[in-house]
Structure formats: C-alpha cells, structure tokens
Design brief:
316 residues; alpha/beta; Aspartate Aminotransferase, domain 1; 2 domains; 36% helix; globular
C-alpha cells in the first residue's frame, strides 16, 4: 500500500494515453468530453469503468486484506461488502445530515484503509460541507472516496478540481443521472496516477462493450443539451419543493442539491403505498436512520410533478 503514503503531490497524467484501439480512443475521448463540464484538466488521471458496482469493487480490492476495515458515510449496494469480506464501521451523520468529524476521528484506527463519502448525499439530497471533507483529507492518509453521482445538480463544485492537492482522493461520478445514460452503466473515476495504476491491474479486461462506447461518445457531443436539462430539473426541483410545503400532510421538505427531494410527511408508509397503487413510484426511506417518516421523491417533468401534487392533495 505504498501509494497511500502521502509524501508528495503526485504528477497527474491521462489514464488512457498508451491504450490502443477503440477502447483506448473511447477512454481518451471521454476524458476530454466528460471532463469539460466539471472543469477537469486534460492532464487529470481518468478512468472510465462500468457503473458504481464495479468501481467500488475495484477500489475495495486495491486496499484488500483479511482484516481491512472500511469507514463509510454512505455505500450503495451492501452486496459489495459481502463479496469482498470488508468489515465496516458506520458513522452516522448529524441531525443536519452533515459529517460528524469528532465521531469519525474517534472511529478511525490503525486498520482503517478507506473513508467513503457521498456528496450530494443519498437519500438526504444535501451536499456535505466542503470544509468538513477537506478536514478529513488533510488529516487522514488512507483513501478518501467521494461518490459524486449527483454533483451536476449541486451548488458546490466537484472535488475533481482538487485532485492535485490530495493524492489520496478518489472521485467517482456517473453518466446515469444528469446525462440520462443509466442503461449504459458508464461511470468515471478520477484519482492520482498511482491509485489508477493499481485499479487498472485489478479491473476486468474489456469491461465496456462496443455499443455502450458508441452511444456514450454520441451523447457526450450534446453537452449543451445536457446543461439545459440540468437547468430545467433544478428549476422544477424548486417549484416542486415550494408546492409541497403547502400541503397539509407535509411536515418538512429538506434542501436539495440532487435531482430528488427528501420529504418528511404524516403517515409516510401509507402515502407511499397509496401512490404506488396509483402508478406513482417514490422511495420509502422511513426506515433509514435520521430519515424517519420520509419519502424520497424524484423530480420529474412539469406535468409529472403536477400529477404528483394533485394526487398527494387527494389522498392525504
């Protein structure tokens, strides 16, 4: 694990610069195009693997040993932990859905290999305080992995622009949310040259199919259209949040930096089942700690949001 011993700022270089054939072209081209919206330098170390599951699995294997412990604030897919036999220490967020720095500090020990964060967070929808994440990066020298799946909808900048400052930082993004390419299962990992080199040795070969490559390349030509869609979703998010607070059944609509809202309401489980019976799918998060009585509502089109509001008013 020598690459985790931070003693210098690693030189950042392009992951795919020496990879031949179509796959190499795809990685280089995605590096240039997907990096532009987040201000990622063309010299940034860049990896284009399939979606979250494989990326997380590869990161686990990069630090894997029998006694590994993983600290996390959020982790999608508990099955990845079972596959990799990873012990976990969970550190709850504060009541404000922010990092509990003192609790994280107390939980870290000599076996801690990784801290996993999600910002904007799921299902709370808020961005974690930038300065809190920097506190962790400045005082912890194992891997700090930040899942930025919803970063395109956030008021905060991506941590990808700070990769040269923190060689132990790994940033994961996706083309499934803002880009609308969930069916292609394409994700992005950004990190130091040393970290990506280890990941390249572990990842399965030829793990992105030709059809996914071609469709992704075509979609990445439409940055302007994607930015318009993001702007429309953010606009509708604010309209929907303002309308929800006027319903008598709604107790609180939490601030959102994602493409969904966390909403606390009366009889959340009953409302969830009624909506589902009427063909409206939301996420029941009432059993998630700190999210008691909450539903997670994805922001839809103007018409879809209006249908949701009319239905909620009728059934509550």
């Amino acid at each position: 694990m020598d690459f985790l011993k931070v003693g210098k700022i690693y030189e950042i270089s392009c992951f795919a610069k020496s990879v031949p054939n179509t796959t190499g072209r795809f990685k280089l081209w995605c590096h240039d195009k997907a990096g532009e919206p987040n201000g990622i330098s063309k010299d940034t170390n860049f990896k284009v693997p399939p979606e979250n599951g494989e990326r997380i699995k590869v990161v686990f294997k990069a630090v894997y040993n029998r006694n590994i412990r993983l600290h996390l604030q959020y982790l999608p897919g508990d099955g990845k932990i079972e596959v990799n036999d990873v012990q976990i220490k969970e550190v709850n967020l504060t009541r404000e859905f922010q990092l509990d720095i003192e609790a994280i500090e107390n939980a870290i020990d000599e076996n801690t290999k990784m801290i996993f964060l999600c910002s904007p967070n799921n299902p709370t929808a808020n961005s974690l305080y930038h300065e809190d994440i920097e506190t962790i990066l400045n005082n912890y020298f194992g891997l700090v992995v930040i899942d930025e799946a919803y970063i395109n909808f956030s008021r905060q900048k991506s941590f990808s622009v700070q990769l040269s400052e923190y060689p132990n930082l790994v940033v994961m993004q996706t083309l499934s949310k803002a880009w609308g390419l969930a069916a292609l299962r394409i994700g992005i990992t950004l990190a130091s040259e040393e970290i990506i080199a280890v990941m390249n040795k572990i990842k399965p070969p030829y793990n992105i199919g030709q059809a996914s490559q071609e469709l992704t390349l075509r979609a990445l030509e439409e940055v302007g259209q994607v930015n318009e869609m993001i702007g429309e979703i953010i606009k509708e998010r604010e309209v929907l949040a303002s309308a929800l607070v006027n319903l008598s059944s709604i107790e609180k609509v939490y601030p959102s930096d994602a493409n969904f809202l966390l909403v606390k309401m009366k009889d959340a489980i009953i409302v969830y089942k009624k909506l589902l019976a009427m063909g409206i799918v939301v996420r029941d998060r009432s059993k998630v700690e700190l999210c008691e009585g909450c539903l997670r509502i994805t922001v839809g089109t103007k018409e879809e949001n209006q249908t949701l509001l009319y239905t909620l008013a009728a059934i509550t």
